[in-house]
Each structure stands twice: as structure tokens, then as C-alpha cells.
Amino acid sequence: MIQDTDFIPLVSPSSEDHIPLIDKGEDLSKWLSEKENEGQVVRTRLKASERVIARVTDGIYRQPASALRELISNAWDADANNVDIITDAPRFSRMYIRDDGAGMSYATLARLLHSIGGSAKRTEVGQELGVTDKLDSEKTPGGRLLIGKIGIGLFSISQLARRFRIVTKVANENYRLIAEVKVRAYSEDSDDEASRDEDDNFVNGEVLITREFVEDLAAHGTDIILYTLKPRVRDMLRSADRWKALDEKEAALAADDLEAAQSIRVEEPKYHSGWIENPPKKKSDPTVLTKIPKFPWDANAPADSRMSLLMDAIEKESSRTERPDLASTLDTYLETLWTLSLSVPVEYVEKHPFELTADSGVSIYWLSNENRGQAIEVKLNPGQTVRDAVKEQIAGHPELTEGKISPSGGFKVTIDGFELKRPIRFKHPTNDAKKANNPMLFVGRYSPNLANVKSDVRGGNLSLEAYLFWNSKIVPKENNGVLVRIRGASSGVFDTTFFKYQVSEQTRLRQITTELFIGRGLDAALNIDRESFNFSHPHVQLVGQWLHKAIRQLTNKHKDLSKRARTEKNEAQAEQVRDALTVHSESVWNSRRIGDPLPEITIAQDRASAEQSRSDGFMTIVREDIPSLTGAMTTAERKDKEAQASALMRVLDAYGMLDDRPYDEQQKIIDAIFKVFYAANIK
Q: Disulfide engineering: 330 pairs with which of 44, 119, 334, 467, CB 3.0-4.6 Å?
């Protein structure tokens, strides 16, 4: 936990106005470069060169995770290998971010403060300052593709706190720089002359800077200490609205006000970081936990295992509801960890999809870029990866490069002892003919030739690699959709519309997880929050068209395989007479869900076996939960009732009556209908 003693101001607040002001970037850089100024404090002002940049001071990001994502991306751009964040959960009074990247020289820091919205990255200036590769301004000195380009990193911090400290050091230098930043809110109505400098730049805050001597020449990196977080940010991270609503609900129940209690539609998160109803107002006041934290790991669990344990916990919720979701299972803090794990360029919790091998049990297909092309099956030899098999078997020997470690090494982000890992698994049900189809992974590359398109129209070159993963069930349901990664970073939120895919594929679209890895292009189509796109940009149109063709190849292949599986099943059961109930329920399904595969339904003896059956992709009826299926009866009577229950479940599902309902409620519906229409005859 962060201690209050860690934060000692450079000077007392009463003396800040008497510190000399240096308002020009080149003058500030020169002052910081001079060794005789060590230990002295100088004052400067934050400046934004455009009014539009000034406006983002208070509203560029919707969630704290988005602001933290930008800070982590900055560490990536600085060739850091490790980022450590302490959030002070569940108090969230202050925050600490440390990376072991290149750090900032006095020239880089001076430019950062005086050129907000004018990033040196991807420019010749960046090459001169050493923040980009000398030969390729699109890359870091260590060879990574740069994520940042706008230069509003300071404003990402200001979304969390108005006052913060930056401590930074470059390797092989005998000094470090300390900057205390105070950002002020931008006001359109302000007539204060202090809000502008003589060049009509907007002044968004003040900075106190000092240069300190250090003996450790090898040390390098940047620390950011966020002083008191904004009240609303704290409340969001600690799920204050949710916990307060739960308190109100509990009070209503205690007062026998059932109507008020039922109107409060919130549930306690299954896992959370704890709750402090009354945060201490003074430093000396004790912190009293109202709710003890509940994590799906113990205190001794290694940092790199915690994401796997969190995923296990969410997947277990499949025994309670068909499509577990993060919102009801986790509090905002744990959701933030999940979103950040999807947002930043960290490794997968298990394997990168291009590194899967034959023992994964996943069927692999290569996507065609032709207008009416069909996906080609790729066979994996023992020990062979998807990456290697594609290069060996596909014409032109395409090489999938996404996921390979960059020359600058790996990238690890740890928050409060929790190492971020990309929370996507490529799991599959056991390979058994009685169970759901094996999952499928469709991989591809796309790099259209835009040479004949006018340069002012094409928006630059475009290239991507991608996978589309089909599985009988996507858990959690927030992992359903398409996630766009530009230079390794994303918004952390899947687009469930798949770039506005127009074809009705109700079932299959809910069973697809997709990531698009953008190597070149699309960057210019990103809106300033990096969470949405300008859909009129030509790259967005091209990517959407390619994705829609890929989805059609997936659905066509899945339909072919489902049809083949049904044919084989019918041949094996050719001598068996299909009863009227099964024929009717399948007819209803096929008329309502045209083209969708028939759901496989099983009867489980108890809840334990039902949980395994459901995890394997089956719709499952639990005999012990339906009184109409229990009791004394002949074997024939039991088979008749089980057939009726299966047919009833298929018909209800065909009409969407079971969508997103907890399993317990599904069982009750079936039993209630049984009691009304016992042994109904279908003609």
C-alpha cells in the first residue's frame, strides 16, 4: 500500500509563486542541462498548441482503464520491459506507476511540457531526441512499432488526478529530473489572460522541475506518482455506486419495502477488491473495511498465475448461467484489470493463437482474400505450430509475424501483484462424436495493393493479420466480437457488430472471438480517444469488407461441417425410427433458425454431470431439477418424458425463450409447462 510519507512536495505551496518562471522550451532545456542548477527548482507552464487539445483536459476518456492504458502504452514506446502499478486498492487514494524504459532527457521533458498535442514520436524531431529509431521514425530505438503519435499523455494522467509527479532518468546520466505537475480545468468562458501565453498557446497548468544528482548511472526509467485521485475516479474504481445501491436494497428489505428492493436491480459482485463505505478523511484516521476483498486466488498465488485463476472463476459461472458476463461477476477494479489486459501488448494467458499445435484439438483454416474464396484446411503435424504450418502448406508461403518477441524483449505489466495477461483462451470440448463440434481457428493476412488509388484518398498503405475463433460457447460473453489491435494496443472492448456485419447469423456470431492485428494503416482512422473509428476513412471500409468476407468463409465452412456431421449421424441411425416429437421440434428449430446447427441436448442425472456437459457445449436438462422426470415409472415412460423435455427445450430455444436465462430458471420453465400439458401429443 502506498504510504503518505512517499509524497513530499519539492517546495512549500506558499513559496511556489516566488520560484523563477521559464516559459520557453529551449530556455527550460538549457537550464535543466546545466549541472550548476542541480538542486534548484524552476517553474514552467503546460501548454497546448491547439484549442481542441485544450478541450481534452477533462473528457478524453470514459473509464480510468483508458487513461492507464495510455500510460502503459507510453512505457511500451519507451522500450520498457517491466511496468509496475500500485493502485492503493480498495482505498484508491493515490496511484504509482513505474517503468524501466529509456526515461526522458532534459530536452525530451522540456518538449513534452511545452508541446502537448505535438508528439515527437514518428517525426524527425523524435529521431533527434532519441525517442524513435534513427533509421525508422515509426519504430522505437529498440525496434517496436510506436503506439503513440498525438502527444497527449499528460492529459491521460490528468483524467485520474489534477496533481502528479514525474521522476525520470536516462541510462548513463548522473542526474534525474523531477517534475511536479498541476493541471487545471479548461474553460471555454475563461477571459483570464493567464490561460494563454504570448504566442496564443493555451496554458493548462504549472510545473515545478528540479534536477538531482544520482550515483547510479545504469538506472533508467520513469515513475509517475498520482496525488489524490479525483473523487469520481475513486468512486468508479471502488464501485461506489454499486455498493451504495446494495446497501439501499438491503435497507429496503429490512424495512419490508419489497417494491423498493425489487426496483434496485444490482447484485453483489462475485469477486471484488473490497469496499470501504466511509474512507478516512484524515491521514491519521484508520481505514475500516466494510467488505473484505474476495479474489479467486490466495495471497501466495504468483502474479503470473492470477489471470488464469480469474478466468477459471468466470468460466465456472457457466454452471449457473449460459453466458457469464464480467459486469455481474466482477467489480469495477477487476473489470479494469481485465480491460487493461486486453488493451495493452502483453502475452496471452496461455498461448498465442498462431502458436497453437495439434494437441490443442482446434481445427485450422486459412482465409482466402478472393471475393468468392473458400477457407483452406491446414493440417498440423505433431509439434508443428499454426505459424509454421501456414508457411509450409499455403501458396506463397505467407509468414505470420504477429506475436513474435520484438528485439527490445518482452513486455510485462503488473498491477498490485497481478500480472496482466491477455484473457483469451482457445479451449475446446473433448473430441467425442457425441459432443459439440471441435472449435475452429481461421487465420489470414491482408495487404491490398493500393498503388492505383490516389494518395490523398487511400490514406496510406494497409496490412493486417487476423484470426477468427469459433467455439460452441464464448466465455465471458464480453469476449464475443472483434477486437482491433493497432501496433499491439486496442480499446479493450470487442465490437459485437463485427464492423456492422449485415447478414443474420444469430447463433454463430455469438460464438466467434476475433482479433485483427493491424501492422500498417488504420491508425489515422482512430478517434482521439483511441476507442472508436472514423467509419468514413477508407481503411475502415477496407478492413470491414475483408472481415465480412472472412466471416462468410467461417460460416460456410461451419455449415458444411454441420451438414456433414448430420448426414453421418443420420446414416448411423438409419434403422432407428425418429419419433414425432423429435421431428416436430427439429422442424420448428429449422424454420426459426434457418441455417443454424441443431442444438445437442443431453439429460444429466445431477448438477455435477450437467456442469461438465454444459462446458462441453451441450444444452443440458438436469433430471433431479425437474420433478416430472423423477418418480416411479417404467423405462419406456422415462424415455418418453425425456424425449418430450428435450423437444420442449429445443422449441423454446428456437423462439429465443431461453436466451441468457440462468439454468435453474430454464429447468423451472420446462417443469411448469410439463405440469400444465402433461404428455402433450404432437400431430
A: 334
CA 398 vs. chain centroid, Å, equals 28
pLDDT at site 294:
97
* 414, part of any domain: no
Query: C-alpha grid cell for residue 79?
Result: 522500450
Q: Give me the helices (H) in 522-579, please.
A: 538-572
In the β-sheet with 481-486, what is the strand arrangement from edge to edge?
Answer: 376-378, 363-366, 440-446, 463-470, 512-520, 481-486
Task: Indicate the helix (H) or strand (E) that contains 309.
Answer: helix 306-316
Q: Directed axis angle between helix 332-343 and helix 64-77, to 10°?
A: 30
User: Nine-digit cell at 386?
Assistant: 499454426
Comparison of pLDDT for 32 and 422, the residue scoring more: 422
Which helix (H) or strand (E) element contains residue 389?
Answer: helix 386-393
pLDDT above 50 for 627: yes
pTM of the model as a whole: 0.83
Q: Give the strand order in the sheet containing 82-86.
A: 41-48, 202-213, 175-183, 163-169, 221-226, 95-99, 82-86, 412-415, 418-419
Of all helices (H) and strands (E), which one includes residue 165? strand 163-169
pLDDT tops 50 at residue 429: no
Show which of 565, 591, 614 is a domain's final residue.
565
Spatial CA neighbour of 543 closest among 551, 94, 216, 210: 551
What is the domain extent for residue 108? 4-229
477 and 508 together in one domain: yes
Residues 518 and 632 in one domain: no
What is the distance between the alpha carbons of residues 264 and 266, in angstroms, rounded to a whole number? 6
Out of 229, 256, 285, a domain closes at 229
| Mean pLDDT over each residue of the chain, to the nearest integer | 84
Interval 3-52: pLDDT, tens = 444 567 777 776 677 788 888 888 888 998 899 999 899 998 887 655 44
Residues 584 and 452 in one domain: no
pLDDT per position as a tens digit, 14-23: 667 778 888 8
pLDDT tens-digit map of 509-529: 999 999 999 999 888 777 766
